[in-house]
Design brief:
binds zinc ion, alpha/beta, 11 helices, 5-stranded parallel β-sheet, globular, 12 strands, 303 residues
Length: 303
C-alpha cells in the first residue's frame, strides 16, 4: 500500500512556534536556509524514487520561484500552505480569501502547474472559521489536509472523523484527508509527522503505519518540513515550549526519514486523493462519507 508523503515548504523562521517573537516584516532579514534544506530533501527523495506533495507558502514561491519550479520539475506535486503562514482562526473571512487567492496565484505561477490541495498553517481550521471550506472550494481547491483530529491545546477535534470524507459546501464539495492518527481501545494518538516524528522513537512510527496499513487497510499521511533536516539552523528567540517543539530531535530526523523511505512506499497526496475519488467527479465519491459543512464544525469544540 502506498502512503502519502507531504512536505510543508517553509523556512525555520516561518514556524508558528516563533510567531510571537518574530514579525513577518523581519522575515526578509533572516538568513534563509530553505534552498539548501529542500535540495537535501529532494536528493533524499530521488535516491528512494519517491514523490511527495509540497504544501508551499505563497511568500516562499514569491521569493524563490525557481525552487518551486525545480520541485515541480522533479515530479512532485505542488500544493498551497497559505501565503504568509498566519493561523486561520486569526483571520477574517475576507483576509483568508485574499491570503489564499494570492498564494494560489503566485504558487501556480512559479510551479507552472495548477494547485488543487490546501493545508492550513499549524492545522488551524477551527469553528472560528466556518467559511474556510466554502472559500477553498470557490477558489478551485479539490482537497484539504488541514485537520488534525486529536485533542489539542486550544481545540478538541477528537470527534472529527479520522478517515477521509467529503465536506459538502454551498460552493462545491472538497475532500478532507485528515492527519494520520491511531485509534486503539477508544483512544486517539498522533502519528507520523513533524514534531511527533522527531519526539517519538522511530519504532513507534513504523509500527503505527504498519498497523494502519495492515489492520485498517488505510494509508497514512506523513508530514515534514525542510528545516527538520537541518540541525545547524540558527536558534531563534522563543519560549521553552517553542524551543522544545522546534529543536527537539533535529539530529535524528534525517535518519528517521531515510528509514521511512526504506520501509514504506509513498506517493503525493494528490494522487492518493484521486484514488479515493476526486470530489469533482461525483460518481467517484460514493464510497466516501459526505458531511455537510455545518455538521463538520459541530464536531469541534473548545476545551
Ligand atoms: Zn506550516
Amino acid at each position: 500500500m502506498k502512503n502519502a508523503l507531504t512536505i510543508d515548504l517553509e523556512d525555520y523562521y516561518h514556524a508558528t512556534a516563533f510567531a510571537d517573537y518574530i514579525d513577518q516584516v523581519q522575515w526578509h532579514s533572516q538568513a534563509s536556509r530553505i534552498e539548501a534544506n529542500t535540495q537535501k530533501l529532494l536528493d533524499l527523495l530521488d535516491a528512494h524514487e519517491c514523490h511527495a506533495t509540497f504544501f508551499t507558502l505563497g511568500c516562499v514561491a514569491e521569493q524563490f520561484p525557481q525552487l518551486v519550479k525545480k520541485i515541480a520539475a522533479r515530479g512532485h506535486e505542488i500544493a498551497c500552505h497559505s501565503f504568509a503562514h498566519r493561523q486561520i482562526f486569526t483571520l477574517t473571512r475576507d483576509q483568508f480569501y485574499e491570503d489564499t487567492r494570492r498564494a494560489k496565484l503566485v504558487i501556480e505561477d512559479a510551479a507552472g502547474t495548477p494547485v488543487y490541495g490546501y493545508r492550513a498553517p499549524s492545522f488551524s481550521i477551527t469553528n472560528a472559521s466556518e467559511w474556510t471550506f466554502e472559500l477553498l472550494a470557490e477558489l478551485g481547491f479539490t482537497y484539504d489536509s488541514s485537520i488534525f483530529p486529536i485533542k489539542q491545546l486550544n481545540f478538541e477535534m477528537q470527534n472529527v472523523p479520522r478517515n477521509p470524507f467529503v465536506i459538502v459546501t454551498s460552493t462545491g464539495p472538497i475532500l478532507e484527508f485528515p492527519m494520520t492518527t491511531l485509534q486503539i481501545a477508544g483512544a486517539r494518538a498522533p502519528l507520523a509527522g513533524g514534531a511527533y516524528l522527531r519526539l517519538l522513537p522511530y519504532w513507534y512510527t513504523r509500527w503505527g503505519i504498519q498497523y494502519l496499513n495492515i489492520s485498517e487497510s488505510r494509508p497514512a499521511c506523513v508530514y515534514l518540513h525542510p528545516w527538520e533536516l537541518d540541525p545547524e539552523q540558527p536558534r531563534m528567540k522563543g519560549s521553552i515550549t517553542a524551543h522544545l517543539r522546534h529543536y527537539f530531535g533535529l539530529r535524528g530526523t534525517e535518519t528517521k526519514v531515510h528509514r521511512l523511505l526504506e520501509d514504506f512506499e509513498f506517493q503525493p497526496l494528490g494522487l492518493l486523493v484521486k484514488e479515493l475519488g476526486s470530489p469533482l467527479s461525483p460518481d467517484l465519491t460514493v464510497n466516501l462519507p459526505q458531511i455537510r459543512v455545518a455538521e463538520f464544525f459541530s464536531y469541534i469544540s473548545e476545551p
